[in-house]
Amino acid sequence: xxxxxxxxxxxxxxxxxxxxxxxxxxxxxxxxxxxxxxxxxxxxxxxxxxxxxxxxxxxxxxxxxxxxxxxxxxxxxxxxxxxxxxxxxxxxxxxxxxxxxxxxxxxxxxxxxxxxxxxxxxxxxxxxxxxxxxxxxxxxxxxxxxxxxxxxxxxxxxxxxxxxxxxxxxxxxxxxxxxxxxxxxxxxxxxxxxxxxxxxxxxxxxxxxxxxxxxxxxxxxxxxxxxxxxxxxxxxxxxxxx
Length: 242
What we know:
With 242 residues, the chain is an alpha+beta fold. 18% of the residues lie in helices and 31% in strands.
């Protein structure tokens, strides 16, 4: 199934969609990527199925006469930034697929933000794609994957980025990003040591300001308050020792 909630996040907030129950509508992405339709206050899951009938088919589409989400995403210009999803990954030994060439290797040009395509047998670049993975066609993860499958590859942070990370949203640690969803963290416990752990929830911070996040808004604010409270508590402890 297609996670249309991830596609909707790329469209303007006032974008007009079409659903088979009420017709033309606007939507809002809720917690857990549920989708609320206006007017009607109808709740769908992230696949566009009615929340009360999740065995049903998708009932939400880009337009009344445009019901292929992948084609619309490509044609509309609201494309997936593939470059940013590959930037922190080790792709040196990974094969991709490009129509007309078949299985291929790629290299990222960080100066121009382009993707260079190579065959598995030649050192010469055969095509240069833009950051969305497009040349005369688009780059695929594999022969039988679709363009929308790139949505399953998380955007990667630059290696060494200062992050706050957790696996359970309860205990957070500050560390540095090592790529592939792994973080080197120092847990604030006596006799603990540096640990490189694959984390489920990762954001990066600049000073006290959270710059970007995969969290929904209230989680960002909650974590931000937690950081500030921890800093204030640390200051009070330090002051009492002086």
